[in-house]
Design goal:
single chain, about 500 residues, alpha+beta, Beta-Lactamase, 5-stranded antiparallel sheet, 5-stranded mixed sheet, 13 helices
Length: about 500
Amino acid sequence: MAANILAPVPSIPFKQSGSLMPFQAFSPMLAKGSPIAVPLQAVGLLSALIFLISCLFEVMVINGMYEGQHVLLSLLLMSLSIWAIVEIQLVVNKRLQLPIRALRIVLVAQLLVIFVRGFADLTSTPHSVSESGLAGGPQFGFALVFLPVYLALFMLISRLIINAFSYAEFLRANQLQLQMVALEQAKQALQLSEERYRLITEWVEDVIWTLDGWGCYSYLSPSIEKLTGLSPEAFLHQPLAAGLADHSAQMVERFFEDSLALQEAGLSVEPFRAELELLRQDRPNLWCEVTMTGLYGPERQFIGYVGVTRDISERKTYEVELRDARDAAETANLALLSANAVLHGQATTDPLTGVSNRRHFEQVIEMQIAQSRRFGESLSLAIIDIDDFKSINDRFGHQMGDLVLVALVRLLRAQLRKGQLLARWGGDEFVVMLPHTSAEEARQLAERLRLAISVHVFPVMTRLTGSFGVAGLQAQESSEDLFARVDGVLYAAKAAGRDQVKLSE
């Protein structure tokens, strides 16, 4: 139906001079003061004036009262007739196709009759006039011939003018009929649009509402009853914040305060969108998403607010479930990371002393050797062996021997810098990797460690000593070759009397 309203207005064809003319060509003549009304009225007045002058002319002829003025009167009649013809021509020039061809022919005929009458008057014998200036008696002369002709022409012209005006009224009636059809179509389209919007507002699950300038409900769609259990009438003229929880009501009140400030400054109200908690009687509170913006009249005057309330309680439930699942996953992930850390620690550290085990040390030394060669940096290695450690286990037991090892590791760690890796090589042997350290610097460090061990008081032991083997990484040397050289100088230190440091050349 809306499409029909937008369709072009149909044309009403009529026959004029043997052709079909569209109705739109005559629309200008129907307005007040249009080009058709004024010329036709002028022609009618001119024809009536010509008729009156012609009758007066004949009366004066009959009574011999127009001697000396017949030329002027004839010229006047000719001028008026020419004027009427010119008016008709002006109408034609304005391209208003009207049935006035017959009217033009009759007006030309009237001009010819006036011309013939004037010529006959000039060639005829003057009438006798009495001394008083009046005719001696009624004389008819040519009046008997021309008066009926004038009367016939006047009646014919009047009839044609009436037909022309009737034709114009016919077109006006057609135009009014088309306007009535268009109005009926617009009315039906408006009813259809109203029914469509009413259907949307009544059946959509979201609540559509409007507020007045004070923030009170002025309209609510019927879906509010499904949402809250109350009819729309229960909310009318109630403030929006009244049906919300405290924290949600505060958000809405702040929005209204900001909106009032914008209105006083002559600015438009900014849109509002938030998740609010809706209060319900005898039911749990409901979470809703509220969208609101300013409502303006035809002249952009502020008249209130329009908004939509959407139930998001199901989404909130999913969000809670998702958050709980995410928390559970994070807890499980942390537990897994912790377990991985424990497993990694068990795989890379010595369970007794807490330093790196032999497997982890071998992996690290390979990477460190590759890096030292890439950047041309020095790398040294030292091995520590506790002197006569077997006698400690034999005299005091393995448990006491373990305490001695733990105390030894604590002492060694205190002497090492960050980046220098200490590992338990096996039994009572320990190895130290010394990056960025030359062989001589490594020997000096080993001497400090040996001295620290010899003066330290260990559990159940008054004095404990250790033998050290030290070597620096050589070019193109593998980790196995480096360990072999360090191990060789370690046994040389033990053979030389123990409690000393030997450096591989």
